[in-house]
Design brief:
Blueprint (H helix, E strand, L loop, with lengths): L2 H23 L1 H15 L6 H13 L2 H9 L4 H30 L6 E4 L25 H13 L4 E4 L8 H10 L4 E6 L6 H10 L2 E6 L4 H8 L3 H14 L5 E6 L4 H4 L2 H10 L3 E6 L15 H17 L3 E4 L17 E4 L5 E2 L6 E2 L8 H5 L2 H9 L16 H11 L2 E2 L8 H31 L1
Parallel strand pairs: 1-2, 1-8, 2-3, 3-4, 4-5, 5-6, 6-7
Antiparallel strand pairs: 8-9, 10-11
Helix pairs in contact: 1-2, 1-5, 7-8, 15-16, 16-17
The structure holds iron/sulfur cluster (SF4).
């Protein structure tokens, strides 16, 4: 970490610690005074956009202000641990270490590691990528523990479980929370295995946050996930809310469900249920059995983009639209630039949707994986497009993925039905061509508005 960043981080860390401590006493009264505290310690020009957003929320008492107040209704221990792990450890200390190592080693170093504890699942959803790997693979507790230890040395304090259904390994997930109290753990889950006992464990360990998958209202959700799953998810959300535990929703938009999941009624349902965040994913035609007809049309994607942005200005829930929000993170975040994915067989993949790799974590270190040919192709190629509404080397720029996989010699990690990169990229070609015009109109209009 260079000297300026060290000083900058230390100053911000001190200011933030005092501010958070102060806010705990009486958030509603003290939120307006919190900014003064930060301003006294942190010089003008440092973290200006974050401070401006915070100031705006306070002055306007807008939806973000409501969301900040909601965090003070959460369990105190869980909230304080989240602030420490997510802001202090992950965003401040961790990012600085990542940056230093990335420069020294000339490779990407991730902010978060996604990993599949198991490919097993208690449901059998249509089109789930977990199915691609079969249902017999697991990363052992010691392997996951070792990945986290290596990750922390690289400055990575954020771990996100995918699958399979990670909660099939509930006990191990709690053990990992205990072993690494300085990390924040988030888990994608179908929600059906969250019960009273697990909520109590979450309160005890304090560093575990579920992101429950929903495909829309009851009909759409149960159509894909199975009858009765929506009711089980509702019960899980009720339990989490009753225990003042933070949770979010993850949802995948397709040409079939986009109207429902970007509707005001859907947002309101999630907010009423107590969700703090909602993450939107674009349907990806990955796998030999994928259905390209589920890809949204340009008009549909534009509508999704506009609706999510509109509700972001008005609804007290933190929403991320991964395929349309690349501008906030400078493009594609895969290949270790912000994250990577390790599947249940140990294959280290650049992204949860990119099932190609040169390396397996059972045979190499995390740092070696980050320097492997496909990861270096990501490192050297990012951003894949200057238009941040076309960030992906697969979906919107399929010729990039085709080239990177072929040149790096990466192989399919799909153990059930290996898909050639040509098969995958051919499916994306037409989509990419169709989306380009709309993406350019939206992106350049957006830029024009920002400048004026
Ligand atoms: S590879 Fe595509 S889907 Fe994965 S992070 Fe990059 S842009 Fe997103």
């Amino acid at each position: 970490m260079n000297i300026i960043n060290t000083v900058k981080n230390a100053a911000f860390n001190t200011a933030l610690t005092s501010t958070l401590h102060y806010l705990e006493k009486d958030p509603e009264i003290n939120i307006p005074k919190a900014m003064d505290l930060i301003d006294k310690v942190v010089p003008d020009g440092w973290y200006e956009s974050q401070r401006a957003a915070f100031r705006k929320a306070i002055t306007e008492k807008n939806n973000w202000y409501q969301l900040i107040l909601k965090t003070y209704q959460l369990d105190e221990g869980v909230r304080k641990t989240f602030f420490r792990n997510f802001i202090m450890n992950s965003a401040l200390k961790g990012s600085a270490i990542q940056e230093e190592i990335a420069q020294r080693e000339n490779c990407n170093v991730p902010w978060a590691i996604l990993l599949d504890p198991t490919s097993a699942c208690n449901l059998h959803c249509t089109g789930c990528w977990a199915a691609e790997y079969g249902h017999k693979l697991s990363l052992s507790l010691d392997t996951i523990d070792n990945i986290i230890q290596q990750g922390k040395e690289l400055g990575t304090y954020m771990y996100i479980y995918t699958g399979g259904e990670p909660m099939v390994r509930k006990k191990d997930l709690i053990t990992l929370c205990e072993r690494h109290p300085d990390c924040e753990f988030l888990s994608f889950t179908n929600g059906t295995l969250i019960d009273e006992e697990f909520c109590k464990e979450m309160i005890r360990v304090k560093n575990f946050v579920p992101a429950i998958s929903l495909e829309g209202f009851e009909g759409a959700n149960d159509g894909r996930r199975g009858k009765g799953v929506f009711t089980k998810v509702q019960n899980a959300m009720k339990l989490l809310k009753k225990h003042n535990l933070p949770f979010g929703i993850s949802t995948c938009y397709t040409s079939a469900n986009y109207q429902d999941i970007t509707s005001e009624a859907f947002f309101d349902m999630l907010i009423d249920a107590g969700a703090m965040f909602v993450w939107f994913f674009h349907y990806m035609p990955v796998g030999n059995d994928a259905v390209p007809a589920l890809l949204p049309t340009p008009e549909q994607r534009k509508l999704i983009y506009e609706r999510i942005r509109r509700f972001r200005e008005t609804k007290p829930i933190f929403s991320m639209d991964f395929q349309n929000d690349a501008e906030y993170v400078g493009g594609c975040i895969a290949g270790g630039r912000r994250y990577l994915h390790i599947n249940a067989a140990g294959d280290v993949e650049p992204c949860v949707f990119i099932h190609y790799s040169n390396v397996n974590i059972h045979e190499c270190s995390l740092l070696d994986a980050l320097k492997s040919p496909l990861f270096m192709a990501y490192h050297n190629g990012q951003p894949f497009n200057q238009n941040m509404l076309r960030p992906c080397p697969m979906l919107e720029n399929p010729e990039y993925l085709r080239k990177m996989v072929k040149q790096s010699g990466a192989e399919s990690t799909d153990l059930q039905s290996p898909e050639s990169v040509d098969h995958l990229c051919d499916k994306c070609k037409l989509y990419a061509e169709n989306w380009e015009k709309t993406a350019n109109e939206l992106w350049y209009e957006n830029e024009r508005q920002t400048k004026s």
